[in-house]
Structure formats: structure tokens, C-alpha cells
Amino acid sequence: MGALDERVAIVTGGGSGLGRAAAIAFAEAGADVVLLGRRPDKLKETAEMIVQRTERAAQVIKADVTDEKQVDEAVANALERWGRIDILLNNAAVLESGAVYDLSAKEWQNQIATNLTGPFLLIKAVLPSMRKQKYGRIINITSSLSRNGAGGFAAYSAAKAGLESLTRTVADEEHENGILVNLYNPGTLRTEMHTTGKDPAVVTPDIVRLAALSFGGPTGTIHSYG
């Protein structure tokens, strides 16, 4: 039996990079996977990989995580198909350079919307189902920039810092409902955001472990690769 047998996982940004690698790892561990993102062609590629490796069909839902209506509809569609949502991986992110002095309000808001508001909207949308079943595992992808900051990446750093605070808050609010909420910092990965770094597949065992935490496991904490 797999560590995630009979679980249903939503993965945002599932069309490439860490989202794709994590979705495949979830399926290999026995979970049914829902892929969310703005690029259905990329999501379908991931779904095809899942079928090839596991013979499981993944659900593909085009959705912009910054749009509350689209998020709510996506979660409703997932629940209609699977009847439950056990795992949420908030992976979708935007990384664009820009110092405070140079950033426009629109550029700032774009990164905050994807990197912080998006996870908030997804968490809010899945909580009713998780509360009802008294079970949920939420994993938010963070970065070392959340604590250290970095010149030229003001909006991204601030958004990830906010995500860490949001994670601790939700962990405190939902622990009594059997919902564990944690952060994972994978370090630098070789993805569309970075041309160098580790293969995303290297860190997926850590993410599967967080998704499979038993009752009484850690919550509101940061976990890192290595």
C-alpha cells in the first residue's frame, strides 16, 4: 500500500517544475490528483505522465489562483468528482525581479496576488471539506527569501514572508479539526524560474511525507530539503 492510498490531492502550478514532480509523486504514493493552473496544455502533459507511470487518471482544471470565483469553482469541481480533498499543495508562484524603488504598484500586487493571496483563497476553499472529514494536510512552498530578503526581489520576499505567517495562523486555527498546515523550502530547483539547481524530483519524498503526516504530527512548522 502507498503512503497516500485513498487520498485526494490538489496541486497548484501542476504543469511544470516542482508542481509536476510533486503531482507525479503523490500519484505514485497512491493519491488521486487534481491539477490546477493557468496552462491547460501543460497540465495535460503532467496528467499524461501520471497515467503512464501509475495508470491513474488525474483531473485537470484550468484556474487562476488569484481569482476567487475560479478557485471556488475548481474546488467544487474536484469535490464533485472525488467527494473529498485531503491534501493541498500550494506551489503556484511568480518570481519577478524588482527593487522597492523600481516596482510599480501593479507589479507588486501581481506577485502578492499569486504568491500570497492565491494560497489564502485555496486554503479557504478547501477548509469546509477538510473540517467536515476532520482531516487535511496543507503544504505551502516557501523560500529562504521569506526571512532573509534579497535586494531586487522585494515583492516575492514579502509575499513568502506573509505566506509563512499565514501558515502558522491557519495551523493554530485548524489543528483541532485534524488539519495540519506546514511550510516546505525546497531550496533552488531547476525549473522555469531557475536555470540551475536540483532536479525537482529530488525533494518530492519530503513533500509526500508532509502529505502523509499522521494525527499529532507537526503543524505550523518549516521543513527544508537536506
UniProtKB/TrEMBL annotation:
Keywords: Oxidoreductase. InterPro entries: KR_dom, NAD(P)-bd_dom_sf, Sc_DH/Rdtase_CS, SDR_fam. This is SDR family oxidoreductase. The lineage of its organism: Bacteria, Bacillati, Bacillota, Bacilli, Bacillales. PROSITE patterns: ADH_SHORT. Belongs to the short-chain dehydrogenases/reductases (SDR) family. One of its GO terms (molecular function) is oxidoreductase activity, acting on the CH-OH group of donors, NAD or NADP as acceptor. It comes from Paenibacillus nanensis. The keyword Oxidoreductase applies. Gene3D superfamilies: NAD(P)-binding Rossmann-like Domain. GO terms for biological process: bile acid metabolic process; fatty acid elongation. Residues 7-187 form the Ketoreductase domain.
